[in-house]
């Protein structure tokens, strides 16, 4: 069961406050595995209720190493790419408005740990999120200073799940957290896991 996710005030995320990306309610995103390895396929990030949040496009950028995230109207939010020279696989999300973020891996003997660094758009504070858990089982927590930001899980307590695709997992996100950033983090972690297999 996911922990209670309290709202963030000010909102948490690199993108300027956009009502579509910062929901006032706890939101569950439905994510697909292996988005990078779908060789350039487009993928729409939706809530568990079927509401579109953003799109992830591969063909326009390059099949393997970059994914462009756009809002539902096609406006670019950021482009996620591999940081080729990092020791552990890391990703950089570059936004046209300069609101970038980085997803970095850290070596651990048991489990995995990653961090996400960005300048918070709402108050200009440097933020480091921590991701801990077992990515193979899609069971992980994203926290900020120990406070839950999002919870990643294979299961979602919904009848739809019984008929759903086995290649999907769910991310429950706290109110007023940038949903596009959380989707980008998941795509980066998934890609890293696939390359390490």
Helix and strand topology:
Elements: E1 27-32, E2 43-47, E3 52-62, E4 66-70, E5 76-83, E6 90-94, E7 101-106, E8 112-119, E9 126-134, E10 139-144, E11 147-153, H1 159-162, E12 168-173, H2 179-196
Antiparallel strand pairs: 1-2, 1-12, 2-3, 3-4, 4-5, 5-6, 6-7, 7-8, 8-9, 9-10, 10-11, 11-12
Q: Explain this structure to me?
A:
- The chain is mainly beta.
- The protein has a single domain (27-196), classed as LURP1-related (Porin).
- The chain has two helices and twelve strands; from the N terminus they run βββββββββββαβα.
- The chain has helices at residues 159-162, 179-196; strands at 27-32, 43-47, 52-62, 66-70, 76-83, 90-94, 101-106, 112-119, 126-134, 139-144, 147-153, 168-173.
- It has a twelve-stranded antiparallel β-barrel with strand order 1-2-3-4-5-6-7-8-9-10-11-12.
- β2 (43-47) and β3 (52-62) form a beta hairpin.
- The longest helix is centred in the C-terminal third of the chain and has 18 residues, at 179-196.
- The two termini are 28 Å apart.
- Mean pLDDT is 81; it is low at 158-163.
């Amino acid at each position: 069961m996911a922990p209670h996710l309290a709202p963030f005030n000010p909102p948490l995320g690199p993108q300027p406050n956009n009502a579509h990306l910062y929901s006032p309610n706890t939101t569950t995103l439905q994510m697909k595995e292996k988005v990078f390895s779908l060789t350039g396929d487009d993928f729409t990030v939706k809530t568990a209720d079927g509401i579109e949040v953003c799109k992830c496009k591969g063909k326009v950028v390059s099949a393997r190493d970059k994914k462009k995230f756009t809002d539902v109207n096609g406006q670019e939010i950021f482009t996620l790419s591999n940081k080729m020279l990092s020791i552990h696989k890391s990703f950089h999300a570059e936004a046209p408005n300069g609101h970038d973020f980085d997803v970095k891996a850290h070596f651990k003997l048991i489990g995995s740990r990653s961090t996400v660094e960005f300048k918070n758009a709402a108050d200009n504070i440097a933020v480091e999120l921590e991701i801990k858990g077992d990515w193979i089982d899609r069971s992980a927590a994203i926290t900020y200073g120990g406070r839950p930001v999002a919870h990643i899980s294979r299961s979602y307590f919904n009848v739809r799940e019984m008929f759903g695709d086995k290649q999907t997992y769910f991310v429950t996100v706290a109110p007023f957290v940038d949903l596009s950033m959380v989707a980008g983090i998941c795509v980066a972690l998934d890609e890293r896991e696939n390359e390490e297999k």
